[in-house]
Specification:
The complex is a heterodimer of chains A (about 80) and B (about 170). Chain A is about 40% helix and about 0% strand. Chain A is mainly α and about 80 residues long. Chain B has about 170 residues and is an alpha+beta fold. Helices cover about 15% and strands about 35% of the residues of chain B. In chain B, a hairpin with a 4-residue loop joins β6 and β7. Chain B is elongated and about 75 Å long. The chains are: A mainly alpha (about 80), B alpha+beta (about 170).
């Protein structure tokens, strides 16, 4: 199968960049969707633990990319309970 | 007479596949960075809670002392000349300009949405969930908005008024 793909790629080399970009885009979209499904605090898969969003840590980063704010270094301004 | 085996100008084809792709990536990456920047916490001066009810808003200023009040639309009979029908309320949300404000928005009963279009704000008020939006208004004045999620008979009659004072 892989050999077939490689031989066809050699016959039409100008199509290789096309497949590279389309492949990167599609796999990036799928991986991000999986990341959201598994790590987003709004999502819950476990019937026995229905509210995992109540156990978020104040120093964890849940965003994909944080530009200026370093969540692990945030200082704690609220009182302990 | 089909074109399945016609293959011409392959170098050109490669270039005009790769070049637009690179241009689009160069546009997309800073754009995504800006998108994530809009989500940042901007160290707000204070926090206001906005709770949607059917069919009014409750605002709580609890940072320094406890100020809690309801904000109902002014009924047409109570309007003074010069007031805006369906937009003016009895108690406005008073805020200072140039101060980053954090709004925590939720609802007591059904879905509502807290909107002030002239400040670019729209956040849904969802029962059981706390949504956050932050903003910094730079110009004093009165800013109007209306509830933006259908919530029953008086959905059109629960406006939001922000009064920004210098």
């Amino acid at each position: 199968m892989l050999r077939q793909i490689l031989s066809q790629a050699k016959k039409h080399p100008s199509l290789i960049p096309l497949f590279v970009f389309i492949g990167t885009g599609a796999s990036g979209a799928t991986l991000y969707l999986l990341r959201l499904a598994l790590f987003n605090p709004d999502v819950c898969w476990d019937r026995n633990n229905p509210e995992p969003w109540n156990k978020l840590g104040p120093n964890d980063q849940y965003k994909f990319y944080s530009v200026n704010v370093d969540y692990s270094k945030l200082k704690k301004e609220r009182p302990d309970f | 007479l089909t074109n399945t085996s016609i293959s011409d100008a392959q170098e050109m084809e490669t270039i005009w596949t790769i070049l637009p792709a690179i241009i689009l990536i160069l546009i997309a990456l800073p754009s995504l960075r800006i998108l994530y920047l809009t989500d940042e916490i901007n160290d707000p001066s204070f926090t206001i809670k906005s709770i949607g009810h059917q069919w009014y808003w409750t605002y709580e200023y609890t940072d320094y002392g406890g100020l809690i009040f309801n904000s109902y639309m002014l009924p047409p009979l109570f309007l003074e000349p010069g007031d805006l029908r369906l937009l003016d309320v009895d108690n406005r949300v008073v805020l200072p300009v140039e101060a980053p404000v954090r709004m925590m928005i939720t609802s007591q009963d059904v879905l509502h949405s807290w909107t002030v279009p002239s400040l670019g704000l729209k956040t849904d008020a969802i029962p059981g969930r706390l949504n956050q939006t932050t903003f910094t208004a730079t110009r004093p004045g009165v800013y109007y908005g209306q509830c933006s999620e259908i919530c029953g008979a008086n959905h059109s009659f629960m406006p939001i008024v922000l009064e920004l004072i210098p």
